[in-house]
Amino acid sequence: MASELSSVLNLANLSAISKMDIEGDDVNPRATPGAISFKISQGYGMQMFKYARNRNGSDVVRGELMSYLSEAVGDRNTSVTNITSGSTTSAVTTGLTANDHDGMLCVVLDNNDVAGGVPEGEIAVVANNSATLITLEADYPLSTALAANDDLELVATFQFNDSADTDEAWVVMGVVAPAGGIANGNYGWLHIEGMGPVLYTTAATGEGEAIIADVAAVKDGGGGAEPLVVGISPAGIAADQRDTELRALALMKLFTVNNSGSA
């Protein structure tokens, strides 16, 4: 039952993709959401991409920096407290945005009936959600039914929105790759590792200096705390390049983030 039974659900392989795939803006997923692809690009060298879904509420454009979807800035979770009722595969609540949490992990944070009792601590997967109902994957049920006043935490896995100023690296997902951007609600590839262009919105950056998150862009790290660092500026960025329409070369470092949050 859920995380008590197995550590995986519907295991898949890494995705082999073409340039045409990278340029995709897909209404329906053409790869497994959350899939990672390792590629070699002439000039840019090794690049890694993640297939993800735009839940920003608006379209996003090439070069914009995206973070994992959350209810609050600087997080990648949505808290669902004091649910109305539930089962092993569902929870009734209020205040959600329909489809925002499809595919997220659902962690049972607190069992109101018995402190520390099941299914507290178990992990399920959200199949889909409406404003009032969270439906969990039937093949990965909780061991015991959820009940009134249980608390849940929905953790983003491939759902993104605009990054925020000084988002910590562990909540930043990647850079929009398709030339035509990704429409709201659609699926597409984000650049997460290696060299590539990214929108830049701050003062000059020296060669080899760290870059951190700004609003849908990156900026100079300013010697900031390590948990903020999302990449490196390999060539430096000129002061007169401070424009949200301009892109700068970045060495993104978001495949595995070793730093905890607490900058």
Fill in the keyword field for this structure.
263 residues, mainly beta, Elongation Factor Tu (Ef-tu), domain 3, 7-stranded antiparallel sheet, 5-stranded mixed β-barrel
Folded structure, characterized:
This protein has 263 residues and is mainly beta. It folds into 2 domains: 2-67 and 161-253, no CATH class; 77-155, Elongation Factor Tu (Ef-tu), domain 3. Helices cover 2% and strands 38% of the residues. The protein has 1 helix and 17 strands. It has one helix at residues 19-22, and strands at residues 36-41, 45-54, 65-68, 77-80, 85-86, 90-92, 105-110, 123-129, 133-136, 151-155, 159-162, 172-176, 187-200, 209-214, 217-220, 229-233, 243-253. The strands form 2 sheets. A 7-stranded antiparallel β-sheet has the order 4-10-7-8-9-6-5, with no helix packed on it. A 5-stranded mixed β-barrel has the order 2-11-3-12-13. The model has no long low-confidence stretch (mean pLDDT 92).
Mean pLDDT: 92
Total discrete domains: 2
Measured on Cα atoms, how large is the radius of gyration? 19 Å
Question: In sequence order, what are the helices and strands, one letter per element?
Answer: HEEEEEEEEEEEEEEEEE
Number of helices: 1
What is the structural class?
mainly beta
Main sheet attributes: strand count, strand direction, barrel closure: 7 strands, antiparallel
